[in-house]
Amino acid sequence: MTIAEESAARRVVGGVDTHKDLHVAAVVDDQDRVLATHCFATTRQGYRQMLAWMRSFGAVQRVGIESTGSYGAGLLRFLQQASVEVLEVTTPDKHDRRRRGKNDDLDAQDAARGLSRQAHRDAQKQGRDDRGLARLERVPEDCGGGAAHRLADDP
Questions:
Q1: Does domain 3-151 correspond to CATH entry 3.30.1560?
Q2: 65-89 pLDDT, tens digit each
Q3: Given this model, what pLDDT does residue 154 score?
Q4: What is the rounded distance in angstroms from the CA atom of residue 16 to the CA atom of residue 3?
Q5: For the whole model, what pTM was predicted?
Q6: Do 65 and 101 contact (CB within 8 A), yes or no?
Q7: Nearest to 55 by CA among 21, 17, 25
Q8: Helices 44-55 and 73-81 meet at what angle, rounded to 10?
């Protein structure tokens, strides 16, 4: 199998830490391995580049976005229009953030890993907020080792 065929057959998830001028994106494979992280402009062109970049690693199953409020709203709309399943992930708890420090790459990786580790559930059956997103909550680190998220029962 060629590298291009392997990439096309691979299932990946994306994670994004949103900011005013740049979004930091990460791609994780189905073995929970971080494949890469990269920064993209918060423009339509940047969103197109981000999605193409994520797809270059394999079939994008879903994308977790940290803070889909003001800074992530444009990316959220773009990905939904591109028929990509989008889940909102919560920011790491304050204790965890103080312990490891603020790191945009790690935040994006955590967003992707939370999706990679979650048990495969049908997001359509979960609670939805007014933006049509399944909400994710932080699960303590001792649940599955490392950062994890789960679909919330109540949005």
A1: no
A2: 987 678 899 999 999 999 999 998 8
A3: 34
A4: 25
A5: 0.69
A6: no
A7: 25
A8: 60
